[in-house]
Amino acid sequence: MRDFSADTSALALNTATLGHNLDGYGAGWPLERVIDACAAHGFGSIVFWQREIGTRAVEIGNRVRAAGLDVAGLCRTPYLVGRDRPDTWLEETRASIEMAAALGAPVLTVVSGGTEPGTKGVAETQKILAERLSQVVEHAAACNVRLAVEPLNPMFGGNRTCLMTVQDAVKLCDLIGHDALGIAVDVYHVWWDTALKDACAKAGSRLVGFHLCDWLENTTDMLLDRGMMGDGVADLKAIRRAVEGAGYSGPCEVEIFSRKTWWEMDPETVLRVISERFRSVC
Amino acid sequence: MRDFSADTSALALNTATLGHNLDGYGAGWPLERVIDACAAHGFGSIVFWQREIGTRAVEIGNRVRAAGLDVAGLCRTPYLVGRDRPDTWLEETRASIEMAAALGAPVLTVVSGGTEPGTKGVAETQKILAERLSQVVEHAAACNVRLAVEPLNPMFGGNRTCLMTVQDAVKLCDLIGHDALGIAVDVYHVWWDTALKDACAKAGSRLVGFHLCDWLENTTDMLLDRGMMGDGVADLKAIRRAVEGAGYSGPCEVEIFSRKTWWEMDPETVLRVISERFRSVC
Hints:
The structure is a homodimer. By secondary structure, chain A is α/β, with parallel strands linked by helices. Chain A has eleven helices and eight strands. The first copy, chain A, has helices at 31-40, 50-53, 57-66, 89-103, 123-134, 137-142, 166-176, 187-190, 196-203, 236-245, 267-281, and strands at residues 11-14, 45-49, 70-75, 107-110, 146-149, 181-186, 207-212, 252-254. In chain A, strand 7, helix 10 and strand 8 (252-254) form a beta-alpha-beta unit. In chain A, helix 5 packs across helix 7 (166-176) and helix 7 (166-176) packs parallel to helix 9 (196-203). The longest helix of chain A is centred in the middle third of the chain and has 15 residues, at 89-103. The first copy, chain A, is globular, with a radius of gyration of 18 Å. Chain A binds chain B through residues 83, 114-115, 119-123, 126, 153-155, 157-159, 164-165, 167-168, 171, 191-195, 215-219, 222, 232-236, 238, and chain B through 83, 114-115, 119-123, 126, 153-155, 157-159, 164-165, 167-168, 171, 191-195, 215-219, 222, 232-236, 238.
């Protein structure tokens, strides 16, 4: 077993944790400053969002590596199913795969989108999702990028996801059967699932992402009230054991959407607390 | 199979659907008027909340039966676990069992409460819940009342529930192994669960409640934005088949918390729409 007690190199920062570096949230830092601060705080890698990258993918990727870090991933494809799927989903998905490749990001996150219009529940939508993923997975493989489908908390059913559990994601991967398709496990979405450990064991080498934050006991906003690790009720150590026990050895990506708390703070403080909490409670 | 196409006698009204008959929501009707309106609209039974009943349990129960209806259930015990569990949970739970018996309600709903202070996740809390239910289940049996544990949508984890799936509830019932303990299946909480049909089959005769509403595609409030049957994305017919296919033959209880839509409407309209939707989309 790796000993992370004095080592935060497994830590990845998802830039959303600093309010996407946007003016109005956090400090509105340019990406270069985020990269250097991550390096200074001992992080090993960074996960970006498409809208931050624009046409600078190669430049930003090189800048990250020059700072001694890796790009761990890119967020994310457009919705592939549901009412909010763009008509241009196929071109947009291919473009996001290419952006990940240009950045040097090994993983591109997929949030599926919600229930397909004209259908009910999630089963039919999951089948349509499988068909659409099949149309892009070869391109991902050719670009050396793995697609990571991310099950979301069931409260995001309807308009954001048709995958609510790791078990559902494993079945989807089985249906498609392609190495370039994997699964991201985010504690915010799956902390409550008593079948999680078994599902992770089944996922095995398909686990390509692990996202950290915490579920606050009194969550006040579905989207933007995620907790810092240790401030909530998720059993972070047990979940990490389940993921790493199943063979995952990639980064631990901290992704905290927190409009009223962490996005209001100085990014230096946020990065310091993440590093401390990673060592003490994860 | 029963044919409900022209028959709404399986319908139960959960009075929360009319804004709990409170002033400020719906019409603030007295219970007697709610009872008569349910009878006029062809409902077969009613489910009350403790705070509506006060010390009138026997009187209200008799009034319901005089109108040709049954009392289908009572909401609900105090939280048995979690930070918001009252110190007096044992006395309060015994009192709610006795109120159900006095009303002639065969079922008393149990919402567990959240994660126990000092613990993480749900597994440990589920064990404590089992111990506490064991302390009251004999009293329920003696009163001829069945306790219905109700799994809640995982978004209510932390402060409201430690049971998120019917599968978790089945395991809890297995652990206690007492006929007076059963399970309520509410479509709002479980519509997304691809393992639901199997879990209901396992639950079998332990299914003692079935709650109807719908999951709106764009749910704007965790608590008070439930949809009318047919307005959302839950596969109501499939869920009902899963529940009734597992042997459930009790009432279909309509429970819609909807502050901005249905609680603002005339109760006569709400009852009429429920009756129509029950026949057309459930």
